[in-house]
Amino acid sequence: MNAEVLIDSIISGLLLGLVYGLAAIGLNLIWGVMKVINLSHGAFIALGMFSIWILYTSFGIFPYIGIIMILGLGLVLGIITYFGALHRVIDAPELSTLLATFSVSLIIIGFGTFIFKTNPKALDFSLGGIEAGSIVILGTKVATGVISIIFTVLLYAFLYKTRPGKAIRAVSMNRTAAELMGINSSLILALSFGIGIALAMVAGALIATIFPFTILSGGGYELKSFVICVLGGLGSPIGALVGGITLGLIESVVTLGIQTSFVPVLEFALLVAILVLKPSGLLGGK
Amino acid sequence: MKKILVVLLLLSVLLVGCAQQTVQPSATSTPTTQTTPSATSTPSTSAAEKILIGFSESKTGKFNAESKEQTNGFLLWMENVNAEGGIYVKDLGKKVKVSYTSYDDESSGERVQQIYAKLISEDKADFLISPYSSGLTASAAIIAEQYGKVMVATGAASDSIFNKGYQHVFQLYTPSSRYLTSAVDLLQTKFPDAKKVAIVYENSKFAKSVAQATKSYAEEKGLEVVLYEAYEPGTTDFTSFINKIQAANPDAIIGGGHFADGETFAKQIFEKKVKIKLLSLLVAPAVPEFAEIGDAALYVTGPSQWEPQAKYTKEAAQKMGVEFFGPTVEEFVKEYKAKYGYEPGYHAAGGYAAGLILQKAIEDAGTLDSEKVREALENMKVMTFFGYLEFEKGEYYGRQIGHDMVVIQWQESDGQLKKEVVWPETGASSQVIAYDEKY
Fold first, then answer.
1. Taking every pair of C-alpha atoms in chain B, what is the biggest distance, in angstroms?
2. Is A128 on the interface with B (CB under 8 A)?
3. Which of B231, B243, B309, B344 is the least crowded, having the fewest Cβ atoms under 10 Å away?
C-alpha cells in the first residue's frame, strides 16, 4: 500500500464523515430537545434526495442553491409533521412517539415507492476533481464536506446566539421551567423538529450529489446516524460531527486492511463498546 | 357461542377443501393452447404429419420481457423453416412442417413442471424447448428427463442444471462458469503485459458463481488475483473498493453483478481515474441504458451471449473446419427487424437458435426418434449465426462447451457511444481499446 492511497482514503473518509455527521445532528437535536427517537429520519433523508433530484432534473436548479430551498421545505414539512403526528402524543410514553414517527416513515416511503418506484436515480452533474499525483478528490465531495461544516456552524450560532435558539436549549434542559419563563414550548418543539428534519433532508440532498439513491436509501443512513449519535454523545452537535468523521474514516481507511463486508460488524461493535464503556458518548457530558 | 365458532371453522375447512378441489382440475386445463392453424385441433401422434415442439413461456411474471423475445426468435425460425416446406426427415423421405404448443408458466417453477408433463403426455410434443431462465429450466429439465424427451435449453446459463446426470437436456448459452473467462482470455491476448487482476463482484448467487469460476480460471492462466471481494447488493458507495483497487494496482478489474450496481461502479471508477487496461462487468455494459453515464461508459467491456454486430461467418466456420448452418447474422437481424420492428438481442437470438439446433439434429439423425436425435446433438459441432455450438459429453452432460461469450466494448464513433464486439477474435467487429486511453 502506498502513501497516496492512504491520503486519498483519509480525505474521502473525512469528507464523507462530515455529511454523515450533519445527518446525525438532525436526529440528535430532535432527541436532545424532545426526547423523541425519530424513526422517520431515514425517510426524510430519502425525501431530501428526491427533492434535489426533482429540483435539478425538472427545474434545472443548481444543486447547491437547491439545498437552501430544501432547508426551507424541510423546516415546513417538519413543523407540519410535528403538529400532525407528534403534538398529541408528545407527553405520552416514548413508545408512542416512536410509533408515530415510524408511521410517518412508512407513509413517506409508501408514497415515494408509488411515485418514484424503487429504481436507482442519480444526479447527473459533476464539479470535476482536484488531482495531485494519483490522488483524485471529487469536487462534489469537497463541496459536501464544506457545506456540512457551514450548516453545523450555523446551527451552533442559532442555538447559542439567537433567542429562539436559546429557547430551544432552555426547553431541552427543563421544559416545565422554560414554560414558567413564558416560552411557548409547543412552538419550540415544533421548531426543533422542523430544524431536525431540515438538516436530515439537506444531508440527504448532499449525499445525492455523490451517490445514486432510491427511495429506500435513507434506511442505511438512518442506522449510521444512530451509531454516530451514540458515538458522539446525544445532545452534542460537535459530538455528532466527530462521530460522523469516525464512521467515515472507518469506512474508507480501515477497509483498506479488512473486507468491506466487515465494516457494519465493526461499526456496531463500536456502538456496543461505547454503550458499555462510556454511555454518554465520546464528547457527551457527565 | 362456541358452537357457532366450531360450525364456522368446519365450514371454512370445507370451503378451503372445495376450493382446492376446483382449483386442481382447472389448473391443468386452463392454459390456452396456441398452435399454428395446421395443428389447431389434433394433437396427433402421427409424426409424419408434423413435428410438434412444446415449451412454456413466461407471459406473466418477472421474466415476461425476456421470455417474449425468446419466443419471438423461435417463431421466426418456425416461420422460416415452414416457408421452405419444413424439416427434411430422411426416414420419411420428405419434408415435415413444424408446429408448436405453449403455455404461460407465470414465471413459476411449479407451473413449469405441470406444463411440461402435459406437453409430453397429453399434447404429445416431439421435442421440447426450455422456458426462459435457469431456475425454470432446471424445473423443466427434470420432467424432460423423466419422459426421455430431448429439450434444448436456451435462456439458461446455470451450470448446476447439468450435473444431475440428465441425458436429454442440451444447453445453448455459455454457462455462467465461463461468463467472464472470455474477459481473461481477451486481457491476456491483447494486453500480454497484464499480470494482476482485481475481481470485485456483487454478493449474489449468480455473480458469486461467475466470480469464483473467473478467479480459478485467471489463476490457472498465470494471472495474479490481487483483490477478490464481494459488495452487498444495492451498494451505491464503492469508495472503499476503489481505494483497495488503487492500493493493489491491478491491470484489470473484472466483476459486477446487476445493472444498477455495475453502472455506479463503472462511474465511480472513472471519477477516481483508476488506471487499468481492462474493465469488464457483468450485465450492465450489455444493456443499452449503460450509455447514459456518458464518458464513464467509454471503453468499458462486458460479456454478452450474442450481439447483432457479431461476425460469425461461413469463412470463420471454414477456418475452424466445421459446417455453417442456418441464416447468417445479417439475415437473422434483417428478418427479425422486418417481423418485429426492432433489433434482436441475445434472448431472441437464443430462441431462434433453439429451433435451428433442433432442425439440424433432426436432419442429422434423419428421424424423429428422441434417442437418435439425442445422439445427433451429442455429436454435433456446428457454427451458426449464434456462434459455435458443441455439447459436453462428460460429467456435465449436455452443457455448452463450444459457444463463447462475446465481449462487447463501448467505443466512440462520430461522437456517439456504440457497442462493438471485441471478442472472440473470429467474431469481432472492432479492436479492443485499453480502458485508460480515455483519460
1. 86
2. no
3. B309
Classify residue B16: in a domain, yes or no.
Answer: no
Give the C-alpha distances (Å, rounded to integers) separating B42 from B34, B45, B46, B229.
12, 9, 10, 57
Asked if A8 and B260 come within 8 Å (Cβ–Cβ), the reply is: no
* Mean pLDDT, all residues of chain B: 87
Asked whether B378 and B372 are in contact (CB, 8 A), the reply is no
Contact B229 A260 (CB under 8 A): yes
Same structural domain, B194 and B330: no
Chain A: residue nearest B237 by CA?
A211
Q: Tell me how far apart the alpha carbons of residues B39 and B101 are, in angstroms, rounded to a whole number.
A: 9
**Inter-chain touch B271–A134, beta carbons under 8 Å:** no
How far A24 CA lies from chain B's nearest CA (Å)? 19
Task: Indicate whether B428 and B283 sit together in one domain.
Answer: yes
**pLDDT (average), residues A186-213:** 95
| Domain match, B52 and B66 both | yes
B136 and B98 belong to one structural domain: yes
Q: Which of B40-44, B139-143, B416-420, B423-427 has the lowest mean pLDDT?
A: B40-44
Cβ-based contacts of A9 with chain B (< 8 Å): 240, 243
Record the pTM: 0.79
Which of A119, A211, A252 has the CB atom closest to B236's CB atom? A211
pLDDT at B2: 52
Residues B199 and B163 in one domain: no
pLDDT digits (tens, 9 = 90+) for A7-64: 989 998 999 999 999 999 999 999 888 889 999 999 999 999 999 999 999 999 999 9
Residues in chain B: 439
The nearest alpha carbon in chain B to A124 belongs to: B293
Contacts of A256 in chain B (CB under 8 A): 240, 243-244, 247
- Contacts from A217-220 at CB under 8 Å and sequence distance 24+? A217/A45, A217/A46, A217/A49, A217/B236, A218/A41, A218/A42, A218/A43, A218/A44, A218/A45, A218/A46, A218/A47, A218/A49, A218/A109, A219/A42, A220/A42
If you average pLDDT over residues A253-275, what whole number do you get? 88
B241–A211 C-beta distance less than 8 A? no
Same domain, B270 and B138: no
For residue A52, the model assigns a pLDDT of: 96
User: Is there a domain that residue B13 lies in?
Assistant: no
Residue A260 at interface with chain B, using a CB cutoff of 8 Å: yes
Structure confidence at residue B42 as a pLDDT band (50, 70, 90): very low
Predicted confidence band at B65 (pLDDT cuts at 50, 70, 90)?
confident
Of B203, B246, B264, nearest to A5 by CB-CB distance is: B246
Find the mean pLDDT for residues B96-102: 96
Distance from the Cα of residue B15 to its chain's centroid: 43
B289, B321: one domain: no
Calculate mean pLDDT across residues B276-291: 90
Q: With an 8 Å Cβ cutoff, is A103 touching chain B?
A: no
Give me the CATH number covering residue B157. Answer: 3.40.50.2300
Q: What's the domain range around B410?
A: 178-304+406-438
Cα(A69)–Cα(B438) distance, integer angstroms:
37
User: Chain B partners of A251 at a C-beta cutoff of 8 Å?
Assistant: 237, 239-240
Number of domains in chain B: 2
How many Cβ atoms from other residues are within 10 Å of residue B288's Cβ? 10
Q: Are B274 and B411 found together in one domain?
A: yes
Residue B147: inside a domain:
yes
What was the pLDDT predicted at A1? 56
Compute the average pLDDT of residues B14-27: 40
Query: Looking at chain B, which residue has its C-alpha nearest residue A10?
Result: B243
Q: Is residue B7 part of a domain?
A: no
Instruction: Report chain A residues whose CB lies below 8 A from the CB of B232.
Output: 261
Contact B244 A255 (CB under 8 A): yes
Q: Report helix, strand and coil shares of chain B as percent, to nearest 5.
A: 45, 20, 35
Whether A166 has a pLDDT exceeding 50, the answer reads yes
Q: Are A105 and A40 in contact (CB under 8 A)?
A: yes
